[in-house]
């Protein structure tokens, strides 16, 4: 480029139009284009197919990641909800114990009885259910033995008295039932000599 008076080069303008605007005739291809061999259409198609396959695989991978993410978020949301409900229900268990004691002593009457029934119904809707009955076989996963004795009336370790009801929410034990346990009398008593 020839330098201008102020030291800067003049811009170069190239006319790459395929039709000459003055004559309307098709121009010959520039020399650089004539020398470069054109790629075969098969090679271009193969390249495009490879790029398409790569992009499709990327898209499928992203879709799978997003689906897994949505499932994890939904599962976590359910777990967090269950934990929140279980925490609230656990805090209400002493209130239910007081209601149970008042009912046993005949002190739950009138309007308070209706309130207690409404509370118990609402907690049942949330999945709370009491467990622990006199005569249940002792199960250490859901019972807490507070007293132990031997009896000829039982054939296996049995809850002979329920000292405090247990509560569960679905399969989750919120509080074990506190019970007095009796074992069959013919069971050999454990001695301190066995520990040595």
TrEMBL record:
Bias type Basic and acidic residues, positions: 1-21
**UniProt feature, compositional bias: Low complexity:** 29-44
Q: Which UniProt keywords apply?
A: Chaperone, Cytoplasm, Stress response
Provide the protein's localization: Cytoplasm
GO CC annotations, alphabetized? cytoplasm
Q: InterPro entries under this entry?
A: GrpE, GrpE_CC, GrpE_head
Q: Which family does it belong to?
A: Belongs to the GrpE family.
Name it: Protein GrpE
């Amino acid at each position: 480029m020839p330098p201008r008076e102020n030291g800067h080069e003049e811009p170069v303008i190239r006319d790459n139009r395929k039709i000459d605007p003055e004559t309307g005739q098709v121009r010959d291809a520039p020399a650089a284009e004539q020398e470069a061999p054109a790629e075969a259409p098969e090679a271009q198609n193969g390249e495009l197919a490879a790029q398409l396959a790569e992009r499709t695989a990327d898209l499928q991978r992203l879709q799978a990641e997003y689906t897994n993410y949505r499932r994890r978020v939904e599962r976590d949301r359910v777990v967090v909800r269950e934990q929140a409900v279980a925490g609230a229900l656990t805090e209400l268990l002493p209130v239910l114990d007081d209601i149970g004691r008042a009912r046993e002593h005949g002190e739950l009457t009138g309007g308070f009885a209706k309130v207690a029934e409404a509370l118990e119904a609402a907690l049942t809707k949330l999945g709370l259910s009491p467990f622990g009955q006199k005569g249940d076989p002792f199960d250490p996963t859901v019972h807490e033995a507070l007293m132990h004795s031997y009896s000829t009336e039982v054939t296996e370790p049995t809850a002979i008295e329920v000292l405090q009801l247990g509560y569960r929410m679905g399969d989750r034990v919120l509080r074990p039932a506190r019970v007095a346990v009796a074992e069959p009398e013919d069971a050999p008593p454990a001695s301190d000599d066995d520990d040595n």
